[in-house]
Hints:
Helices cover 46% and strands 13% of the residues. By secondary structure, the protein is an alpha+beta fold. The chain has a three-stranded antiparallel beta sheet. A hairpin with a 6-residue loop joins β2 (41-42) and β3. It is globular, with a radius of gyration of 12 Å. The chain starts with a helix and ends in a 9-residue tail after the last helix.
Amino acid sequence: SRGLGDVYKRQLLDNVDLAELLGVSQRTLARYRQEGKIKYYSVEKNGKSFYLASEIQSFLLQRGKNVVNNK
């Protein structure tokens, strides 16, 4: 698996990247999207979801976690 730092350096994360980063299943990510807990962007052509790394950092900070510094 990729290191979290490597994943986080990318501007956009996909479902696989984010599930690994958060330690949750892709189904849990779908629930987060449905509940409005996490901001995402969808490509109309294929419906694939993407997440901005900076917004994910904000999501984690709200929960007392800091992925960048592994705190």
